[in-house]
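INTERNAL TRANSFER SHEET
From: sequence group
To: structure group
Subject: Inosose dehydratase

Please process the attached sequence and return the structure record in the designated field. Keep the field labels unchanged so the import script can parse them.
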Amino acid sequence: MGSIQLGCAPIAWTNDDIPELGKENTFEQCISEMALAGYEGTEIGNKYPENADMLKEYLDLRNLRTASAWFSSFLTTKPFEEVKTEFIKHRNFLHALGAKVIVVSEQGQSIQKEDLPLFEYKPVFSIEEWKRLIDGLQHLGELAGEKNMSIVYHHHMGTGIQTTEEIIQLMEETDPSKVSLLYDTGHLALSGEDPLYILKRYFKRIKHVHFKDVRRDVANEIIKKNDCFLSAVKKGVFTVPGDGYIDFHPIMDYLREHDYYGWVIVEAEQDPAKYNAYEYALKAKNYIDNLEVKGGL
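Return from structure group:
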C-alpha cells in the first residue's frame, strides 16, 4: 500500500465505552487475530498492558506496531494544568512505543457516554469554550512537538466538534504546525457530513485516518427513535469498510493519488457477540486489499 500503513483498532474485540461488549475477549486474542488477519499495527485499548516495554514485547512477537491511542481532553471544563499532566503521561507512553501521533478528542460537554438523544442534545460550544479549546489544543500540540509527535484531533459524534462547520472552525483557528486532523469516515457519514469534502479540503492537515462504515438501516432507526450514542453502537450502527453504505473507492483513490503518509486504522465499534471481531477484521482487510487492486497497484 505504499506509504499507507494499515492497522486495526481493538474496539471490535472489547469496547472501552461499553465494557460488557467483548468482556470475554482477551488482549492476547485481540492482537493475535489482528496479526492473523494481516494488519501491520494497532491502536491501544483498555485491556492492553500499561507498561510500554511489556506491551512492545507482546506486539513485536506478532510483528505489530503501535499506531496511536485515544486521549480524552477536558479543555473546556477543567483547568489546563490538570489536562496537561495527564497528556504528558499519555504522550510519554506512546513515545516509548514508537507512535508518531496522539489522538485527542474534547470530552468537555460530551454526551458520548450519556443516555441522551444523540442529535437533539449534541453540545455546542460557547465563544469562551471555543477559546479554551483552541488555546488548549495548541499548547498540547507544542507538548507533542517536544517528542517530535503530533496531535490529531478526532471529530466525534456527541461532542462539540462533529459537524463540517465545527471541523472548519477548528482547522481555521488552529496553527497547522500544532494541530492536525484525524479523519474518520464513519463519524462524518453518521453526522450527515460529506466525507470526501473534508478529505479534500483538509488533506494537508490529516495525519491519521479511521476507516469505519455505517449501516444505513440502523442509522435511520437511531435517528427516528432519538437513540443515544451507546445505544446506536449496541444496535450496530457502525461496521467495517465494505459492509455499510460508504463508498471507499474514491476515498482510497484520493489518499493514494495524493501520497497520504500515515496510518489507516480499521475501526468498527460493534458487539463481537453479534459480529465476530476476527471475521470482520478479515472482511475489512480483504475489502481494502481489493480496493488497491482495482486502483491499479
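Handover comment: The first strand starts at residue 4 and ends at 8. The chain has one domain: 4-294.
Transfer complete.
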